[in-house]
TrEMBL record, chain A:
Pfam family, one: HupE_UreJ
Record's keyword annotation contains Chloroplast: no
Organism the protein comes from: Kaistia hirudinis
Presence of keyword Metal-binding: no
Domain of life: Bacteria
InterPro entries: HupE_UreJ (IPR007038)
Name under which the protein is recorded: Urease accessory protein
Membrane spanning stretches: 42-63, 95-114, 119-136, 148-172, 179-199
Keywords: Membrane, Transmembrane, Transmembrane helix
């Protein structure tokens, strides 16, 4: 790891530490009230269906290579935010939980099969599922909480889950690692199937 | 480190911290201010050295003017929406990877500076304490933007530029969600 990468890692840790600070209470609590970064950060982490789908996005990005490896983690939060807006304004979106579980199945299978569609198609698949994930977050976004911190918390958590996927997926440069990553894809698809069928 | 931070009470209400540090920490502990300053720092840095030379003094001047005019404002408006909007536009430009014209960068720096200055208006009891608090807020805000701009300016390698764009996309997503929530709250 070069010095620049240490600086970048340090900056990221510092950024997250600063964001972990509870909100300032000077403004009466109406605008910087309870909730905040930690609540938003934990929200995607406490939903196993969200977690496996986010990790699958990172894993698939590695298989697809550049530029998908960074396009997908940029596309996902942006489209997820759009989905969040749909959730807040209560745009009818059928079977949100089914869509989230299906995202784990489809993305898991894409990793397991090492599928390499064109970038636009991969972005379309990931973006479509991001709508469902964002919708669930947006619909559950607490109005009374510190909304800026909450939103930033769950966006950052989502991004870090992608990074976890990318980190694990980087094992794919070795044959045994590639097998492990594809096996992870199988497990994600099975877990998604369990959520989809209501077993889990 | 994750567990250590405690609830921060700005405007001199941070127990045992005093007016200076309360002001200094204000831009770091108020999420909307932090978001706007991070976004404007990234934008200024990614727009090049000339934009830094113009944008940082404009931001500092606007912040100073807003902080100085705080005593004249009887009831400071909530600037969170303005801060989120400034963060959204700035971060969206960085996410696209485009280099904004200097006048756009300057305008956004001015909006962000004014919004942060009004939002962080000192509420100290004495005039000296208010001055100390305001000066510290100015120092903290400008230092944060300068550091982020310097990091953005130095981001020359491919992975560094990508990292900048990913961070900016996170800011865009957060700002969109916040603004949507405000819109929904106001219509209900």
């Amino acid at each position: 790891m070069t010095f620049d990468k240490y600086v970048a890692a340090g900056a990221m840790i510092g950024f997250l530490t600063v964001m972990a600070v509870e909100p300032a209470l000077a403004h009466t609590g109406a605008d910087h009230g309870a909730g905040g970064f930690a609540t938003g950060f934990l929200h995607p982490l406490l939903g196993p269906d969200h977690v496996i789908a986010m990790i699958a996005v990172g894993l698939w990005g590695v298989f697809l290579g550049a530029p998908a490896i960074w396009v997908l983690p940029i596309v996902f939060p942006l489209v997820m935010a759009l989905g969040g807006v749909f959730g807040m304004i209560e745009v009818p979106l059928p079977s949100v939980e089914t869509g989230i579980a299906l995202s784990a199945v489809v993305l898991g299978l894409c990793v397991a099969l090492a599928a390499k569609p064109p970038l636009w198609m991969a972005a379309l698949i990931v973006g479509a599922f991001a709508i469902f994930h964002g919708y669930a977050h947006g619909a559950e976004m607490p109005v009374a909480s510190d909304a800026v911190s909450y939103a930033l918390g769950f966006v950052v958590a989502t991004g870090l889950l992608h990074l976890c996927g990318i980190g694990f997926g980087s094992l794919a440069r070795w044959p045994a690692g590639k097998l492990a990553v594809r096996a992870a894809g199988v497990l994600i698809a099975i877990a998604g199937g369990a959520f989809l069928s209501g077993i889990a | 480190m994750w567990l250590a931070p405690q609830g921060a009470h700005a405007h001199g209400a941070i127990e045992g911290v005093g007016d200076f540090y309360a002001g200094l920490l204000h831009p770091f502990v108020v999420p909307a201010e932090l978001l706007a300053l991070l976004a404007i720092g990234l934008l200024i840095g990614r727009s090049g050295l000339a934009a830094c030379r113009l944008g940082i003094p404009i931001l500092a001047g606007a912040m100073a003017a807003a902080l100085a005019s705080a005593p004249a404002i009887t009831e400071a408006p909530d600037m969170t929406i303005a801060l989120a909007a400034a963060a959204l536009v700035s971060a969206a430009i960085v996410t696209t990877g485009l280099r904004a014209p200097r006048w756009i960068t300057a305008c956004l720096a001015m909006v962000a500076g004014l919004a942060v200055g009004i939002d962080a208006a000192p509420e100290a009891n004495s005039r000296f304490a208010a001055l100390l608090n305001g000066a510290a807020t100015l120092l903290g805000g400008v230092a944060l933007v300068t550091i982020i701009a310097a990091l953005g300016l130095r981001a020359e390698k491919h992975w560094q530029r990508i990292g900048t764009q990913v961070a900016a996309s996170w800011i865009v997503a957060s700002a969109v969600l916040y603004l949507a929530l405000q819109l929904v709250s106001s219509t209900r």
